Inverse folding.
């Protein structure tokens, strides 16, 4: 028997190659003939100088196909995202998957009361520490918009809290033009200077066009500034089917793709080779209630299709998945998040944002993050596939044990059971009924709550160096006094 190894990665692709190309061509035609509205004169002048036809009175740029093609060639296909200590670095390429909590939630699910409320600094600290401890939540997010600091500095403050409480890489964003400069300075202090941060980026910045086909002054400038400094930018279009995008999946795919490509062009015109991630925050409108359907299967299909377009362009990909529309930790929370995380992982999306989120992408829950961490681990095991070698086929072992035998005491079992099986935390209960009853008949929600309490009590994230922490504290105080 030959000594071969086969472990094909299972993969999800919703679109045939011919349909991907049709969407691409339709998006190019849309940009060239209909154009994109840009409320940023710097960006309009930048595009004008690159040969784009610009109507300054209407703020519309008509982007030619040749410029889109040139920009796609210039954008890097691999982005390396670095952690503070080098232990949690991530490579965004191919089908590698990085999970992180969704960002910028306005509410927090209180663990004690079960009520939604505005988050406080202590909630963000707890969420960051929990994320730091969870094995399958690979990167941090500035996940909560805390309510106990002024709105003018909350974008900087969120990053400040993350940097002080975890060495993991970060997905973040700013709510202002000058905020990006302050946040860049924070990252430089931790990375060891401007050149070191440019060489080893520690954070991705989200930049979101406004559907349909529009860029605000702030997000457009953020994108251009990220390109200028070679900070990885995640371009996240958000058309909502039936509201700010066509009600058909294909139509919103075309619009989403055009919005992304317009941002890609601006980034590459500003600085050829600027790192850009093909992102998305898909949603569909629930016509019955006028709400966003973030846990709907069509939303998941949109996200996986967006990512397929990004892979067609050979760009790193991102999608908001793993969210739930429910208001508490219940069955809906589990199946919406579980299906989405598995589908996104099978699609090989490089950055999946959303674990921990519920209530329409607007609330974070510590218990849900613990549950989603286990789902992420299971999804990663799924895409490892089935390893087929002489040893795993186990023909000699089967011959040895024979009919009616037992494998439990065999060395082969001891060697392979941890390699072949995903071993979950105590979140998952697989005991028999009597043992479960004797332990209090706890639900998954109750067990998740216990894990949160134990983790926050015991886990100590790796601290910043004292001199770096002092400089970061000083910078934050300066920012606070400037905006007081």
């Amino acid at each position: 028997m030959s000594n071969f190894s086969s472990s094909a990665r299972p993969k999800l692709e919703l679109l045939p190659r011919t349909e991907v190309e049709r969407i691409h061509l339709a998006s190019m035609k849309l940009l060239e003939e209909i154009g994109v509205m840009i409320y940023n004169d710097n960006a309009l002048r930048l595009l004008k100088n690159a040969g784009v036809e610009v109507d300054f009175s209407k703020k519309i740029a008509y982007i030619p196909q040749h410029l889109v093609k040139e920009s796609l060639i210039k954008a890097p296909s691999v982005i390396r995202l670095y952690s503070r200590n080098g232990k949690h670095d991530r490579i965004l390429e191919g089908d590698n998957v990085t999970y992180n909590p969704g960002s910028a939630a306005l509410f927090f699910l209180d663990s004690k009361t079960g009520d939604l409320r505005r988050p406080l600094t202590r909630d963000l600290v707890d969420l960051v520490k929990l994320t730091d401890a969870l094995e399958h939540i690979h990167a941090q997010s500035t996940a909560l918009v805390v309510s106990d600091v002024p709105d003018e500095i909350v974008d900087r403050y969120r990053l400040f809290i993350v940097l002080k409480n975890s060495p993991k890489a970060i997905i973040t964003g700013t709510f202002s033009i000058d905020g990006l400069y302050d946040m860049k300075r924070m990252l430089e202090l931790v990375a060891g200077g401007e050149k070191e941060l440019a060489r080893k980026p520690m954070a991705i910045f989200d930049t979101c066009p406004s559907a349909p086909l529009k860029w605000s002054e702030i997000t457009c400038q953020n994108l251009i500034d990220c390109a200028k400094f070679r900070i990885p930018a995640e371009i996240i279009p958000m058309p909502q089917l039936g509201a700010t995008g066509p009600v058909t999946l294909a139509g919103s795919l075309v619009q989403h793709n055009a919005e992304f490509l317009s941002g890609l062009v601006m980034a590459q015109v500003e600085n050829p080779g600027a790192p850009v991630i093909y992102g998305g925050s898909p949603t569909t409108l629930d016509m019955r209630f006028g709400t966003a359907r973030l846990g709907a299967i069509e939303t998941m299909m949109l996200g996986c299709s967006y990512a397929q377009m990004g892979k067609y362009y050979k760009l790193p990909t991102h999608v908001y998945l793993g969210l739930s529309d429910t208001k508490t930790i219940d069955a809906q929370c589990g199946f919406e998040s579980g299906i989405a995380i598995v589908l996104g992982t099978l699609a090989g999306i490089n950055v999946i944002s959303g674990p921990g989120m519920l209530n329409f992408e607007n609330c974070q829950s510590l218990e849900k993050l613990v549950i989603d961490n286990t789902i992420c681990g299971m999804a990663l095991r799924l895409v490892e596939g089935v390893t087929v070698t002489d040893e795993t086929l186990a023909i000699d072992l089967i011959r040895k044990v024979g009919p009616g035998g037992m494998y439990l005491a065999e060395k082969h079992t001891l060697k392979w059971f941890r390699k072949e099986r995903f071993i979950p935390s105590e979140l998952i209960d697989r005991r028999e009924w009597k043992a479960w009853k004797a332990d209090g008949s706890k639900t998954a929600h109750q067990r998740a709550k216990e894990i949160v309490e134990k983790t926050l009590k015991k886990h100590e994230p790796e601290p910043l160096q004292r001199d770096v922490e002092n400089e970061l504290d000083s910078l934050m105080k300066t920012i606070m006094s400037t905006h007081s």
